[in-house]
Structure formats: C-alpha cells, structure tokens
C-alpha cells in the first residue's frame, strides 16, 4: 500500500494519543507506588507491634497457665458473652476499589466479658486484654496486606502497559511516521523535479517555436 498524507496524519494522531496515555499511566503508576511505599512502612510498624504484643500475650499466658492451669483458662475463654466479628467491604483509593476490614466485639469492657469478678484475677483481665489487642492488630495487618496485594497487582499491570507503550508501540509508530515522511518527501522531490523538467521542455519548445 502506497503511503499517503492522510496515513501520515493518522500515525501522528496515534502517536500523540500513545504519548499522552504513556504520561497518564506513568503518573498513575508513580502515585500508586508512593501509596504502596507508605503502606509498607505502616505494615512494618504494625508487624513490629504485633511481634511485641504476641510476646507479651504469650508471657501472660504462660504465667496464667502456671497459676490457674489449662482447664481454668479454657473455662475463662468459654464464658465470653460475645464473639469477634469481621465486616468485609470496599472503599476507594485513587479510583480503585480496595478491601476494607472492620472488626466488632474484639475489644470489650471487663463487665461484658462474661465472667464475674469473683473467681478471677487481675492477671485474667490482663491476659484477655492482651489477646484482644493482639487480635485487633491481626485484623489491621490483614487489611493492609490485602490492600498491598491489590496495589502491587495494579502497579505490575501499569508497568507492563507503560513498558509496552514506551518500548514497543511508540517506537513502532515513530518508525512508521519516519518512513512515511521520508517516502512522501522523496515523492515530493520527484514531483518537483518532474515539474521542473516539464517547465524546461515547454520553455525549450517555445524557444524553438520562436526561432
């Protein structure tokens, strides 16, 4: 197929759209990477707190086991009046639907834990509070991990699209544009040369006619 000026205009328009798309996708990718790095920092802080909280709960559990035994702790857990609940939904982040995990009935006042003051100790209250704090951290970390997983997948998808535009589509379009421009320029030079020859032939014939 012979290249035309119309084809050149079409290629230039496609190239303009591709470059604008590349710029938009790069900005979105960079924005998501910024959020991703911030979430990773938050995840590391929470993970450190979780490790500390787990050690604290484990130490309290060992102490309570020594004082009250396994049966006493099981009875303490079984009398709890409420059970933890999770509400899983979605929220928006940079136009994306990301997971949102809310917890209920994890942290409870002492009077709502199902056991009476008589027969229990301050150690029991401390142990329950420690495990409640541990579970709250687990829920928060689970939410951040879910969001991180989704953001990472989106960043990878955008990276693939940007790489395709940067290293494949745009270079191909630039190559096509250059080829068509060279072809049209060569054809224009040939046309000017042809017109010049025709003009010279006409002038030569006029001179011969006058003679």
How many beta-strand elements?
2
Shape: rod-shaped
What's the helix count? 2
User: How far apart are the first and last residues' alpha carbons, in Å?
Assistant: 48 Å
Give the SSE order as H and E letters.
Answer: HEEH
Low-confidence segments, given as residue ranges, are none
Summing up helix and strand content along with how strands pair, one would put the structural category as mainly alpha
Helix proportion of residues, in percent? over 70%
- The strands making up the biggest β-sheet line up spatially as 1-2
CA radius of gyration is: 37 Å
Would you mind describing this structure in some detail?
With 211 residues, the protein is mainly α. The chain contains 2 helices and 2 strands; from the N terminus they run αββα. It has helices spanning 5-78, 122-210, and strands spanning 85-93, 96-104. The chain has a two-stranded antiparallel ribbon with strand order 1-2. α1 (5-78) packs antiparallel against α2 (122-210).
Summarize the entry for a quick read:
The chain is mainly α and 211 residues long.
Q: Which features would summarize this protein structure in a list?
A:
two-stranded antiparallel ribbon, mainly alpha, 77% helix, 211 residues, 2 helices
Question: Which SSEs are present, and which pair or pack?
Answer:
Blueprint: H1 5-78, E1 85-93, E2 96-104, H2 122-210
Antiparallel strand pairs: 1-2
Helix pairs in contact: 1-2
